[in-house]
Amino acid sequence: MNTLKNNVVGLHTGSVYEDIRTFIDKFQSIHTQMAYERHIRSFFTWFASGKTLEVLDREDLYIRNADIIKYQLFLRKHSADYSNTTINTIMAAIHSLYEFLEINEYEVNSKYAKVDVLPDDSEGAGSLYYHEAEMMADLVRKQRKGQEKSALIRLAYTTSLRKSSLLDLEWTDITKNPEDAYFLVTTIGKGGKKHTVPISSDLFKELLQIKEQDYYQKYKDNKIFHLSTTTIQSMMDSLKKEMGIPTERNIVFHSFRNVAASYGTLEEVKDHLNHSDINTTNKYYRHKMKDYSQSISLRMEDRIDEEVFQKLSREELIEVIMNQSVGVLIQMKKDAQAIMEGKGDL
Questions:
Q1: Can you give the residue ranges of every domain in the chain?
Q2: Could you count the other beta carbons within 10 Å of the beta carbon of residue 176?
Q3: Rounded to an integer, what distance in angstroms lies between the CA atom of residue 341 and that of residue 334?
Q4: Percent helix, strand and coil across the chain, each to the nearest 5
Q5: What is the pLDDT of residue 181?
């Protein structure tokens, strides 16, 4: 009789994985299920010494609040440059799981899995302009591993790849385009999406110069960059100090990704940034580069003399042109080139 009773109980007592799977599957949205599973797997890989969900024991679930706080700090320093919003989402998934486990009589206390919510940073990294990014790439050459750092910065603001993707790049991830004189950089980005971005032959040559550095000869792992996140943070801090960039601008390495937002149409920027939804592009990037100087409320008050340009010297006119925003300047260059081609001077 006892044997039969134990067998009946056993039918209703799932493994740790089965219970976690039940928790995940209770959500109707497939997207939510996938996100929660990804967050939970990543957490236990970190917390349970690399164990997968399928082999977790009840003992692996025991947690202290200090452990959860450490994981939050781990995410904040992660090379993937997680936003506060993303980290809050991840931590909420873990806390929700522990609430489920506690209700289902696991020896855990869900309140220990709760951490303070990080402040909203939906505005993301501060806006960095093209000429500032170029200046950083030049200034950093004076630092230790200067060529490597300079190439990293230039590749960052040219391709808009995330820091984690850049640091994972291997030489075999860059291939020569068979038809034209440029190269293709292929990575696996956020959400496991494959993404390919072209770069110029000049930029590829600059990357190759990293191999010529004496210290680089010790590396045999085929990776392009060998810079830690701590080194990159120190690099950014020193560059901002040298350039006098105020703290309130919130310039971080992720800001290099924003540089491309001033180029092309919204659809082109979406493709370049590898966004799935164009609304994401519009929300987080295009508004950063909005030129309020061209707003209707200002233009309607504009009563500047129509012949003001004719009163400037050549040097003064060039100075005015070069001080325009990147997007305006590029369009002016295209217009000038078209005029020159029409005159047969090119």
A1: 2-113, 130-289, 305-343
A2: 12
A3: 10
A4: 65, 5, 30
A5: 77
Look up tokens 């080139």; give the residue: 337
- Mean pLDDT (the chain) is 82
Q: Which whole-number Å values give the CA distances from 52 to 49, 96, 321, in the listed order?
A: 9, 19, 59
The pTM score is 0.56
Structure confidence by residue, pLDDT tens digits, 101-143: 999 999 999 999 999 998 765 556 788 888 899 999 999 999 9
> 130-289 sits in which CATH class?
mainly alpha
DSSP for 306-341? TTTGGGS-HHHHHHHHHTS-HHHHHHHHHHHHHHHH
Residue type at 135 in one-letter notation: M
- The DSSP string of 84-108 is HHHHHHHHHHHHHHHHHHHHTT-S-
Of 76, 93, 83, 100, the closest CA to residue 37 belongs to 93
Q: How confident is the model at residue 33 (pLDDT cuts 50, 70, 90)?
A: very high
Cβ-based neighbour number of residue 65 at 10 Å: 13
